Amino acid sequence: MRVLIISDIHANLAALEAVLAASDLAENGHYDAVWCLGDLVGYGPNPNECVERVRSLPNLVCLMGNHDKAVLDETSIEVFNADARAALYWTRSVATSETIAFLRALPEIAQLGEFTLVHGSPRQPVWEYILDRSVAQEVLTMGETPYCLVGHTHVPIIYGMTAPENLCAVEMPDYMHPRKLQAKSRGERLIINPGSVGQPRDNNANAAYAMLDIEAQEWEFCRVFYNVELTQNRMRAIGLPNRLIARLAYGW
Ligand code: ZN
User: Fold this and answer.
1) What was the pLDDT predicted at 75?
2) 8 Å CB contact between 147 and 192
3) How far is the CA of 65 from the centre of ligand 1 (A)?
4) 66-103 b/e with 16+ CB inside 10 Å = b?
5) How many Cβ atoms from other residues are within 10 Å of residue 246's Cβ?
6) Can you give the pTM of this predicted structure?
7) CA of 4 relative to ligand 1 center, distance in Å
8) How far apart are the C-alpha atoms of 252 and 22, rounded to whole Å?
9) Domain for residue 193, yes or no?
10) Please, which pLDDT band fits residue 29 given cuts at 50, 70 and 90?
11) For residue 84, what is the domain's CATH number?
């Protein structure tokens, strides 16, 4: 089974469409299922369209992100910065009842075979950021499955730990080469973040996603160009904060 892994779409329909088109190409291989690690909405201009598109994808497993939760729950909006809050209030004002119902039904954690799926981390599924090796090491040590897929930081990365040393190491994406997953052969445990579809934060403006081949035990980081200006123009027309519009152009 080939799984398309997406996360942090953030209502960026142009980026989402580019990822879906690229992952449909024969050379890149088709997918049988889609795992989405949360934050469908927030920041961007097309929340309802993105929810509608994602919910139509085959064999979808979709997790709850902190922005998804904030659209449902007024009290959690307060923890966001002013720009994020402004976008969340706008999102709430336009969210359809179908969008709200879909977001409300999202689980905070899912376990699928050897994979745990969360937006943040297994111990705080919606809110915790895994931003450094010390946090990653704690999470890897407590994990119930060898692989944990996370989003939330918008940075594609792998944190890995291999027995018997069990020291956490960092791997940056190698876009041209699928990486073998070696839980069985080498006893490794990994936290993998595919990066963000709709608001990358690694100085690369292209949309990030990943392909997982479960039979072959291979993970592949992918990037695809999308029309950033189209999304920026839509944001400008709505009056979303300038900083959120500008950051898309430089991937931060
Ligand atoms: Zn996010």
Assistant:
1) 75
2) yes
3) 7
4) bbbbbbeeeebbeebeebbbbbbebbbeebeeebeebb
5) 12
6) 0.96
7) 18
8) 22
9) yes
10) low
11) 3.60.21.10
